[in-house]
């Protein structure tokens, strides 16, 4: 509900539609589930320049900001390649990462989400350099977006692997059963139980490929949300950088949790992020 409350201010709506026009796409192409799992996230933040300073210090990401009519948005780059989008909402109480799911058939996927109890928070809008995007809320309350890549999109240049690139996405769900029903209904995915050592863990699968994970939400009072993972060859060092830059450390890397290869923190504006060494 966090992003929904902020959308009520009309700021993001004006931001997107003030720059581009509404577009409806044809539905004549096959729709690969999660578009071969292209990973993209958008950061909604109350202060775009504070976020810029933080992510530059921690990951070396470069933020290119677009300003107009008192509004700000931008794109993070790593090594010249796009990594994530950023939207500034000054009235927001906290920042949040919103998972984007790349698809090819917008209207049908939106209709399926609605049939499963989801709702549209932001209607379709064409985003310069990206494509057509719409923001939704699932039946469990977490926000996510659909993107249809269109024309000369920067997203075609995304690098799937590498240091300080997106590695994985996890749904931290207050009700994994309800969340599973929703995403199975929208995408036709299967859910594999990968629980180990008494720790429940589920993986969304399609065609034998893992798409994203799901856990019982370990954090109270924040609601169900998508949490992104960034590849780090040195999770301990990255968490230390984040703490030095003002982050609140939720989980220090330790041998008891995924062999010490994972750290979790909230950026200074409150957005949750995980770092992990996949090797």
UniProtKB/TrEMBL annotation:
It holds the Pfam family Glyoxalase_6. Residues 165-278 form the VOC domain. It comes from the Bacteria. PROSITE patterns: VOC. This is VOC family protein. The lineage of its organism: Bacteria, Pseudomonadati, Bacteroidota, Flavobacteriia, Flavobacteriales.
